[in-house]
Write a structure and sequence with these properties.
The chain is built from 16 helices and 15 strands. It folds into three domains: 6-129, Orthogonal Bundle (Fumarate Reductase Iron-sulfur Protein, Chain B, domain 2), CATH 1.10.1060; 145-234 and 396-460, FAD/NAD(P)-binding domain (3-Layer(bba) Sandwich); 249-390, FAD/NAD(P)-binding domain (3-Layer(bba) Sandwich), CATH 3.50.50. The protein is globular and about 65 Å long. The longest helix has 20 residues, at 441-460. The chain has 461 residues and is of the alpha/beta class. It binds flavin-adenine dinucleotide and iron/sulfur cluster. Flavin-adenine dinucleotide (FAD) binds at residues 98-99, 149-155, 172-175, 180-181, 185-186, 190, 215-216, 230-232, 234, 253, 256, 285-286, 289, 398, 401, 432-434, 438-442, 444.
């Protein structure tokens, strides 16, 4: 059970960020890792409480066996700790970097929670470094073939489990690289693309086939025993204002994709945000990634508009532990903007009233303060803006993919079967954001694995 008094003797220490000025000069990993003794000390803080909420429904969606692997890590039994982690976590190198660590928010130590995410990352990276992670091909093949449409975390997790169960998994993606939003969405500094490529390479060695640059065609997939749709929910919410189609107005994921492509091809001399005044519409996590990316591209300034009021600093009475805290978080991009610009880039209860364009290109915007969702007359302000990034949320999956496979999106734009399962019809299944709406990597992984188990039952008849 870790060290009985560990949490009383040792303070929580997260993997530190690299210095903001240094990290703003590149797109490399935001964090620095800590050595083995620091990790063991952190793992010793897990007190294996009677009811470990961290692995309950309030905590980790994968139900990772957190107290068990923390204890093994504390005792220096790293390889066993990793094996215990891998029983439930398919790709800890992703969740160890980008998971918001729901488990930590549900930890009995509350604000002083055990650093499960950093411990998890340490274990998997140690496993890769020491050669403990080897390709594992299934001993027996079932002869059943499953096509997985989409190579994001849900598709990868499903293909991984189906392959381990002996089925032949083929992942189809229209993108030129596998990973979905892990590759093109989440920026390189948060999740280095080398980590995504390493996992995809490992899966290919284990027998998963990847068909990239390929649009899913139901006719071409008709001879598969099952088809799993994991196409994501990237249909962006558009802005309904004058000049919304002017040049320089861009959806966040398109911008982030282009930025990552540039990083992967060795950088570009004139990145799109360079020397521009940038306005990000949307105060959430995607908006924060846009802020961090625009700063690295050398923008002249960046602000982030948010319609809602700032969340409270502490939990409200109707949001008790162990629920996810709906409190103010200041993420890496916002911290970097504060360091460079002196102020928090977020402007709350404010929206765009009008885009001012010249020669078809955005030049400025008019903002207005809001009371609830209503504009307050007389609060308009004009701001320079040569690049506007829309990160105002998503409205479900693409109609085209759903239509091609003859299934209908529900009222929220998703492919959630009416009975709450993953089974749409015939041999067709759905998982991940395409089924549930835009969510989190860890939820997509858990859902991909749940769909794989359902398909396995279906294939066994
Ligand atoms: C900018 C951004 C940052 C994020 N950051 C985080 C984070 O830090 N932490 C976190 O937990 N979550 C984060 N998320 C959310 C997380 O990335 C998603 O919830 C997760 O990736 C969903 O996985 P998925 O497999 O369902 O779909 P996706 O990752 O969206 O993958 C879907 C794939 O399907 C392919 N596809 C779709 N239709 C077709 C078709 N017809 N034919 C062929 N291929 C097709 C697409 O090309 C894509 O590769 C972020 C999201 C965004 C937008
Ligand atoms: S996947 Fe996320 S919630 Fe689960 S143990 Fe890791 S950090 Fe915690």
């Amino acid at each position: 059970m870790g060290k009985a008094t560990g949490f009383m003797e040792i303070a929580r220490v997260e993997n530190p960020y690299r210095d903001a000025e240094a990290r703003l000069r590149d797109f490399e990993d935001l964090h620095t890792a800590q050595p083995a003794d620091a990790r063991r000390a952190q793992a010793s803080r897990c007190m294996n409480c009677g009811v470990p909420f961290c692995q309950s429904d309030f905590g980790c969606p994968l139900h990772n066996l957190i107290p068990e692997w923390n204890d093994l890590l504390y005792r220096g039994r790293e390889r066993e700790a990793l094996e215990r982690l891998l029983q439930t976590a398919p790709f800890p190198e992703f969740t160890g970097r980008v998971c918001p660590a729901l488990c930590e928010k549900a930890c009995n130590l509350e604000n002083d929670a055990t650093t499960n995410r950093d411990n998890e990352l340490y274990l998997i990276e140690t496993g890769f470094e020491k050669g403990w992670i080897r390709p594992r091909r299934p001993e027996k093949r079932t002869g059943k073939r499953v096509a997985v449409v989409g190579s994001g975390p849900s598709g990868l997790a499903a293909a991984d489990l189906l392959n381990r169960l002996g089925h032949e998994a083929t992942v189809v993606d229209r993108a030129d690289r596998a990973g979905g939003l892990l590759m093109y969405g989440i920026p390189n500094m948060k999740l280095p693309k080398s980590a995504v490529a390493r996992r995809v390479g490992l899966m290919a060695e284990e027998g998963v086939r990847f068909l990239l640059n390929t649009e899913a065609d139901p006719a071409a997939l008709s001879d598969f025993d099952a088809v799993l749709l994991c196409g994501g929910a990237k249909k962006p919410r558009a802005l309904n204002v004058e000049n919304a189609r002017a040049a320089g107005v861009c959806f966040a994921v398109d911008y982030l994709t282009a930025a990552t492509k540039a990083v992967l091809s060795g950088g570009e001399p004139d990145p799109i945000a360079k020397r521009k005044h940038v306005v990000v519409v949307g105060g959430g996590d995607t908006g924060n990634d846009c802020v961090g990316t625009a700063l690295r591209q050398g923008c002249a300034s960046v602000i982030q508009l948010e319609m809602m009021p700032a969340p409270p600093a502490d939990r409200a009475a109707n949001n008790p532990w162990p629920e996810w805290p709906r409190t103010l978080r200041t993420d890496y991009g916002q911290l970097e903007a504060i360091r460079l610009q002196g102020d928090d880039p977020r402007v709350y209860q404010t929206t765009v009233k009008r885009i001012i364009a010249g020669n078809g290109r955005i030049a400025a915007i008019e903002t207005v303060r809001l009371k609830g969702f209503d504009p307050i007359p007389g609060t308009e302000k004009t701001l320079p803006c040569e690049l506007m990034l829309i990160a105002a949320g998503f409205v479900g999956c693409e109609e085209a993919t759903a239509g091609a496979f003859g299934v209908e999106r529900n009222g929220r734009g998703n492919l959630m079967p009416a009975d709450g399962s993953h089974h749409m019809k015939g041999n067709l299944f759905s998982a991940g954001d395409m089924r549930n709406g835009q969510s989190l990597v860890v939820r997509a992984l858990a859902d991909g694995r749940a769909a794989a188990r359902e398909i396995n039952e279906f294939l066994k008849g």
